[in-house]
Design a protein that fits this description.
Distance between the termini: 39 Å
Largest sheet: 6 strands, mixed
Shape: globular
Helix content: 25-40%
Number of domains: 1
Number of helices: 7
CATH topology: Rossmann fold
């Protein structure tokens, strides 16, 4: 079994729920992907980091740092950062807050992101693409260059296409239909 096979199995078993759910986008769905149940587990972190780093490099994306909107992107970014220790050059990780701190430095981005960094935005699950856009805007405002968006799961509801229409190159490690075993995806109810 490859690391990618392991990732798909972990996500399918731990993270995919069926029922009736309201997503963060406000849409209703018969499927919910709580990627954190995989991304915050030892087994998930062990396979996600190397797979994400490999995918970034395979696309030729220049990268100094990876990160995205907290909380979903955080463990994926940290795992990717850690994987780079065994496969230099090193990649730093950062977190984009949902809103700037109202105390201390008042930062929107936490971590070692530097002006002029080449960045890959990390996303756990792409539905509408809104979280990735918010993270990209924050990175650009901080002087970073966004070279791509790497997502763990594409819900296949149009978010990836919208991101690509905005000029972003997007790569997804898995898709909801793959996690459901190739069955038809039940996007929105009614």
């Amino acid at each position: 079994m490859t690391d990618r096979d392991t990732l798909v199995r972990l996500l399918a078993q731990r993270s995919v729920r069926q029922g009736r759910f309201t997503l963060s986008s406000g849409r209703e769905s018969r499927h919910y992907v709580d990627a954190r149940l995989t991304t915050m587990s030892p087994e998930g972190l062990a396979v996600i980091g190397p797979l994400a780093l490999e995918a970034i490099r395979a696309r030729g994306w220049q990268v100094d740092a990876v990160g995205g909107l907290t909380l979903g992107a955080d463990p994926i970014a940290y795992a990717t950062c850690l994987a780079s220790v065994g496969s230099p050059p090193l990649v730093r990780a950062f977190t984009v807050r949902k809103e700037a701190k109202q105390h201390g430095t008042g930062r929107l981005i936490e971590g070692p992101l530097k002006d002029g960094d080449d960045v890959v935005i990390i996303e756990d699950v792409i539905t509408t693409g809104g979280s990735a856009v918010r993270a990209a805007e924050a990175v650009r405002s901080a002087g970073g260059r966004v070279n791509g968006i790497l997502a763990l799961v594409d819900r296949e509801e149009g978010g990836r296409g919208l991101l690509e229409q905005q000029g972003f190159e997007v790569h997804c490690l898995t898709s909801l239909s793959e996690l459901l075993g190739g069955n038809e995806v039940g996007h929105q109810d009614g």
